[in-house]
Amino acid sequence: MRQILLAIALIVAPVAAFTGVELYAGNAPAKTATLGDLSSFKSIISDVQILASKGDLPGAAKRITDYETAWDQAETAIRPLNQTDWNNIDAASDAALKALRQSPPSADKVNKTLAALMAVLDNPAQPAS
User: What is the extent of the structural domain holding 14?
Assistant: First the structure.
């Protein structure tokens, strides 16, 4: 009888430990994916910021169209990686596009929205303020 109880204990203990680890691992929060290399977008926005800071708002508006095209083309690849981060960047992008396309655009508003967009491109998990 002792041998049977010992055998049961030796079988149950590892199975219980393994099951507990599996349950814990299954409930652990999943690490969110990053959006990958955003340097090409940052480069374009940097160009737009330079143009805007020199007062060339028509040039900045033209250059941000390059950003808009690239962002839209990359959507199907980037958006599924992290929906929340993508939405944060997209909202900041929309604000910058709107500011540059106002008639007439406000240089102050353009510079603020471009800075907010660059900040979100640097840290997509942080929504634009």
Answer: 1-30
